[in-house]
Amino acid sequence: MAIRTRNKLSVDFNMASMSDLVFLLLIFFMLTSTLIAPNAIKLMLPSSNSKTMAKQTVTVYINEGFQYFLEERPSSELSLQSDLQAALQSQKEGTVVVRSDKSVPVQYVVNVIDAINQLNESTQSSYKVILATSPKK
């Protein structure tokens, strides 16, 4: 009288559930990547061949109407230095990225650079300014 076991272990691996999971993740990442807006303020950046990348601390936008925006918040030329100081108060070193429309005169970009230089002198910090550009075609 031989007793046989009914439970047999299968060594096969079913990949159907794994492929379903991969497709769901793919759909999720495709949908969420379209929701990200890297430039909230639409600008036509000047073009350049240089590829300087830096960890940005604060972004200053200058649109075609010559208006300043500090991280999407409007700022005036007079209050730009105090707004930058408030945004950078927790760091001694940082990078300020200037995203200026290509139709904006250079003087408006120089105003941002001057505000950072005055901030560096008054707080003994070392903030850098980088002008954002788009790649040449």
Structure characterization notes:
- The chain is built from three helices and seven strands.
- The chain has helices spanning 16-33, 80-87, 106-123, and strands at residues 47-48, 58-62, 68-70, 73-75, 93-100, 126-131, 134-135.
- It has 137 residues and is of the alpha/beta class.
- The strands form two sheets. It has a five-stranded mixed β-sheet, with helices on one face. Strands 1-7 form a two-stranded parallel ribbon.
- The longest helix is centred in the N-terminal third of the chain and has 18 residues, at 16-33.
- The protein has a domain at 47-135: Nucleotidyltransferase, domain 5, CATH 3.30.420.270.
- Helix 3 links the parallel strand 5 (93-100) and strand 6.
- It is 32% helix and 21% strand.
- The protein is elongated.
User: In what order do the strands lie side by side in the largest sheet?
Assistant: 4-3-2-5-6
* Secondary structural class: alpha/beta
Mean pLDDT: 81
For the report, how would you describe the main beta sheet? 5 strands, mixed
Could you state the order of secondary-structure elements as H and E? Answer: HEEEEHEHEE
Architecture per CATH nomenclature, i.e. the level-2 architecture of one domain: 2-Layer Sandwich
